[in-house]
């Protein structure tokens, strides 16, 4: 009886162990699966962060480009003018760039034109300074000796001297001056003065005229 009782208990233990082994083998390994799940979640989260950062950077870049075009459209006058060919539609980026390029080229031409005008005005100012200095010397000499040479030379002789000087100067003046426009005339006049009215040249002209009139009776 004791032997039979021990055999029955041993059989029950074996069956219990068998059931336990089967149940344990059918239960999933939750620790490993949790580790894989968290790792996959981390990977997806990192990708999402990269995607979000890339999207934000791209958005900032587009906003910066848009602001640049808006600033150009506000600064360039021709972009603000109504273009009847496109109606009330918003200007395209290509059209804004083209109008900006055209306006910059226009500004370069205007700058060059103004520089040329400034150069011409400087020449005019220099010529006027020379003429002013000469007239001041003549006035001063007349004020210092108001009666010197009075009534010694007739008006006819004075006129002949003046006419001889002017005739000689007019030859070079007529060959050098262009009357296409008033601006060109002004530039040519002062250029002619600088080239043909130098003190030494004027002195030679006056001496030649005086020698020519010296032999004529009055």
Automatic annotation (TrEMBL):
Q: Name one Pfam family in it.
A: HLH
Listed GO MF terms: DNA-binding transcription factor activity, RNA polymerase II-specific; protein dimerization activity; RNA polymerase II cis-regulatory region sequence-specific DNA binding; RNA polymerase II-specific DNA-binding transcription factor binding
Task: Point to the regions of Basic and acidic residues compositional bias.
Answer: 36-47, 55-64
Coiled-coil regions listed: 104-131
Which residue ranges have biased composition labelled Polar residues?
Answer: 9-29
Q: Where in the cell is it found?
A: Cytoplasm; Nucleus
| Superkingdom of the organism of origin | Eukaryota
InterPro entries tied to this protein: bHLH_dom, HLH_DNA-bd_sf, Max-like/E-box_TFs
For this record, the Gene Ontology CC terms, alphabetical, are: cytoplasm; nucleoplasm
Domain (BHLH): residue spans on this chain = 49-107
GO terms in the biological process aspect are: positive regulation of transcription by RNA polymerase II
Alphabetically sorted, this entry's keywords are: Activator, Coiled coil, Cytoplasm, DNA-binding, Nucleus, Phosphoprotein, Repressor, Transcription, Transcription regulation
Region (Disordered) residue spans: 1-64
Asked if the keyword Repressor belongs to this entry, the reply reads yes
> Self-association or partners: how does it assemble?
Efficient DNA binding requires dimerization with another bHLH protein. Binds DNA as a heterodimer with MAD1, MAD4, MNT, WBSCR14 and MLXIP. Can also bind DNA as a homodimer.
Please describe what this protein does.
Answer: Transcription regulator. Forms a sequence-specific DNA-binding protein complex with MAD1, MAD4, MNT, WBSCR14 and MLXIP which recognizes the core sequence 5'-CACGTG-3'. The TCFL4-MAD1, TCFL4-MAD4, TCFL4-WBSCR14 complexes are transcriptional repressors. Plays a role in transcriptional activation of glycolytic target genes. Involved in glucose-responsive gene regulation.
Name of the molecule in the record: Max-like protein X
Give the organism the record lists.
Answer: Probosciger aterrimus
């Amino acid at each position: 009886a004791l032997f039979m009782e021990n055999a029955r208990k041993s059989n029950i233990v074996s069956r219990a162990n068998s059931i336990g082994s089967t149940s344990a083998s059918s239960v999933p390994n939750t620790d490993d699966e949790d580790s894989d799940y968290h790792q996959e979640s981390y990977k997806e989260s990192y990708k999402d962060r990269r995607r979000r950062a890339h999207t934000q950077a791209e958005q900032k870049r587009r906003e910066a480009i848009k602001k640049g075009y808006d600033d150009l459209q506000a600064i360039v006058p021709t972009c603000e003018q109504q273009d009847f060919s496109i109606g009330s539609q918003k200007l395209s980026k290509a059209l804004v760039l083209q109008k900006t390029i055209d306006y910059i080229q226009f500004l370069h031409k205007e700058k060059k034109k103004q520089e040329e005008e400034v150069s011409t005005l400087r020449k005019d100012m220099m010529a006027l300074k020379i003429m002013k200095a000469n007239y001041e010397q003549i006035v001063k000499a007349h004020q210092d000796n108001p009666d010197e040479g009075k009534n010694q030379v007739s008006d006819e002789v004075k006129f002949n001297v003046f006419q001889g000087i002017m005739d000689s100067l007019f030859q070079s003046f007529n060959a050098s001056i262009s009357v296409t426009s008033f601006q060109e005339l002004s530039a040519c006049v002062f250029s002619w003065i600088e080239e043909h009215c130098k003190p030494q040249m004027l002195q030679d002209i006056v001496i030649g005229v005086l020698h020519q009139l010296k032999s004529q009776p009055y």
